[in-house]
Write a structure and sequence with these properties.
This protein is mainly alpha-helical and about 120 residues long. Helices cover about 50% and strands about 10% of the residues. It is built from 5 helices and 3 strands. It has helices at about 10-15, 20-25, 35-40, 65-75, 80-115; strands at about 30, 50-55, 60-65. Strands 1-2-3 form a 3-stranded mixed sheet. The radius of gyration is 30 Å and the shape is elongated. The termini are far apart.
Amino acid sequence: RLVGVFDLAELQQADADQPVRAIANSSVTWLSADAPLASVFAHPGWRTLDAMPVVDDGRRFLGVLRHRTMRQLQEQDTPASGDDRTVRTVMALGEIYWLGLCGLLQGIAVTASESAAPEGGAS
């Protein structure tokens, strides 16, 4: 049964004589093993935690899900959205390139027309 969690720094700072329960934080954010992946992806705990314990209905500890692993699962689950974002990004970069090129060509045209025009008026 999951009774608490602690990170490596807390373990290293603890006295060797202390029981593990003494350093464990009992207010634990955890994931249910039966939770749908969509709710795991959206879990608010990811805002502050890099890993969360996974428990069953009896709150027995089953393992840990790391944020990096969760993101990899999410990418596998939604490949179309990643592709769509890539396409939008490439299109936006292409648009920026063409706008810059048009501005450069307009600048060259203005400079060329100014140098071809006579400087002083004929009397």
